[in-house]
Amino acid sequence: MNFNTYPDADMMAIDVANVLAEDLRExxxxxxxxxxxxPGGTTPGPVFDALSAADLxxxxxxxxxxxxxxxxxxxxxxxxxxxxxxLLTNRAIAARYLPLYAPAEVPEDVLPELEAGxxxxxxxxxxxxxxxxxxxxxxxxxxxxxxxDALAEDAPVLLPxxxxxxxxxxxxxxxxxxxxxxxxxxxxxxxxxxxALSAAQNLPATDAPIRAVCAGADVHWTE
Length: 223
Hints:
The chain is of the alpha/beta class. It has seven helices and ten strands. It is 30% helix and 20% strand. A seven-stranded parallel β-sheet has the order 1-10-9-6-2-3-5, with helices on both faces.
C-alpha cells in the first residue's frame, strides 16, 4: 500500500478527485470505455462533488457502486441516490450508471440480469473503496453469511449479503472483482480507521475483509 496523509478533508477530497480523474484519462487512452466502482456513505461525497466537474470524456465512462442496499433508488438508505446527486452531475452527467438493484423481493431473483450488465465492463479500471472501523469494505462484513464465498478466488461478480444486525439485505461486488481493479484507492477518515487498517494487515481476510483488496492500493487518510 501507498499511504497518503492530508491536513484536512477538503484537501483530501480535491486531491483524490484529481487522482481519480487522471486514472480515468489514462484508461481512456487505452480503451473505448472504462469503468469505475465507487462507495456509498458520507466520506466520498466531497470527492464526488469535485470529480463531477473533471474535464474528461464522461460519455465513455461507466460508474457503478461497490455495494448497495437492496432498496429502491428513492429509498432514504439507497446509495444510488447519493451517487446520482453528487457524482453523476455537472460534466459527469454523461457517464453511464450500472445499477446493483432491480425491482425484486430478493437479489437472487435478478442476479443474472444484474451481472450481465456488469461483466462485459470488467475488469474495473478504477476502484474507490471505503472501510469501516470493523475493517469491512463494500458489503464484505466480518462474520457475515456468505463472506467466504465473496472472498474466494472463483467468486461470482455479485453476491447478496445478510447479517442479523443489518436492516437491509446488501448486494456487493466480490473481493475478486474489487481487487482486480487496475487502480485501487482506499478513502478513510479518523484515527480509528487508520488503526483499523494497520491492524487488518495482520489478520485473515475473514476477520478483516479490507485486507483482500489492500495489495497495490493507494490509501488516502485524514483526521
